[in-house]
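Researcher: I'd like a structural prediction for the single chain below. Treat it as a standalone chain; there are no partners to consider.
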Amino acid sequence: MSAEPKRCGWCGTDPLYTEYHDEEWGKPVYDDQILFEFLILEGAQAGLSWITILRRREAYRAAFADFDVNKVAAFTAADAERLMNDTGIIRNKLKVNSAIKNAQLFVAIQKEFGSFAKYIWGFLPAQKPIVNDFKSLIAVPAKTEISDAISSDMKKRGFKFFGTTICYAFMQATGMVNDHIEGCIAK
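Model: Treating it as a single chain, here is the predicted structure.
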């Protein structure tokens, strides 16, 4: 009988969670569509567990035009109402409205910087992922000076549901930081 491979403890044994951990979390993302997807999903996750959002990811994909930022940025009040009636997503009016507003702000950043990826990765030294060497989950921070700086800049631009803790989770999800613990198979 072989031993289970070592993974970060937060993903447990749920197959959806372990696949996300092994295949996505901590892997660098430079594609604006995927960055937008995580911006929407991380904002939706505020106050909830990540597995709750992960289980609804396909419903979010359908509800938010396959995470096409230009389409979401053009959503109307009728679209917001449609989203509020969509049982597949978290039906929180503040989160739904902020997702649409954040899409508009995301597009503005794309116009200003050429891409959202150039903007967000520009906060990192040499625009390279930060690879941490934590031995246990307890050592992993909930926020850093960089997440504080990104969150502060985005807040000044009008983004909602992107405080420093959500920002750091976004950074982990999109591989801006690699916080897989020492010995993890996905490190």
